[in-house]
Amino acid sequence: MTTADLPDADAPPAEEAAPPSVMSFNASEPTGAAGLGADQAAIVAMGAHPLPVVTSVLIRDTAEVFEHHALDDEVVSEQARSVLEDMPTSAWKVGFLGNAETVAAVAEILSDYPDLPLVTYVPATTWLDDEQQQSYQDALRELVLPQTAVLVGNHAVLTEFLLPDWDADRPASPRELAVAAHKLGAAHTLVTGINLPNQHVDNVLAGPQGPITGEKFERFEASFIGAGDTLSAALAALLASGVELHEAVGEALTFLDQALDAGFQGGMGHVIPDRFFWALPAPEDGEVDADLPGTPTDDTPPPPRRMH
């Protein structure tokens, strides 16, 4: 080796490429299990950087929501605009936006960046009264769905949101939900929690032509908080990283299943998904307790993404 091969001590260190950023519009809530807490944990676990924008504040515990306080729409816009003028974002995640006024404000921001993928998650909004819920959902359908790449939601919630007059004896199919969403402008629909026989649930990505991909998992006996936010945020982060939609959906669903499997009882209510199950320390001396949730085994697949 010659001196020419040695690194220059005075040279500035090589800059590593920054991870992709995902801007998330969602509610803040104190359990850290859902809303922005879930979004940030899932986005980081996927190797991306979260840009969290608070849209409202939920007063809740792990069992239920007690109160809801929507932020002024200008405050929400100023949060997002101040960051967007400084940092690039590679994808969007929309969760609960608070009220119809904030839906309009967020939709205006999204429209300024039409080439970025948008993942819209529709949660159950039982804390809103009927009038608030109607105006909120109407605004979401009219202003956000036309910009949505992937609409995500539980089968029952999406049926009520997309097909409120559904009265058939059978459940709406993923294709029927996707057709309804597509008429409102959403390119694809990821339907979760479809009940199957033998204690399994199906999760299907569909378009107006029919199912595209999906994953079936064994049903958990526990009730979870933050599962939908976890899935949709993980999907947005994967799309921000340039992963193709088909692969990103499979990876995000697998990540969610493993996070639920490693979930923990943080309070007296619902179980909290462990978005960092893959970071658990390895068992000492090579011993594995297969009965401990989240413990890696020979059959445990590697984590979907690595942190930067």
Give the low-pLDDT segments.
288-298, 300-308
Query: What pattern of helices and strands is seen along the backbone?
Result: EHEEHEHEHEHHEEEHH
C-alpha geometry: globular
Q: Output mean pLDDT.
A: 90
Helical stretch tally: 8
Major β-sheet, in short?
9 strands, mixed
Strand content: 15-25%
Strand order of the largest sheet: 3-2-1-4-5-6-7-8-9
Number of extended strands: 9
Radius of gyration: 20 Å
Helix content: 25-40%
Briefly note the structural class of the backbone: alpha/beta
End-to-end distance, in Å?
32 Å
Map the helices and strands.
Layout: E1 21-28, H1 35-45, E2 49-60, E3 65-70, H2 73-84, E4 91-94, H3 100-111, E5 118-121, H4 130-144, E6 150-154, H5 155-162, H6 174-183, E7 188-196, E8 200-207, E9 210-218, H7 227-240, H8 245-261
Parallel strand pairs: 1-2, 1-4, 4-5, 5-6, 6-7
Antiparallel strand pairs: 2-3, 7-8, 8-9
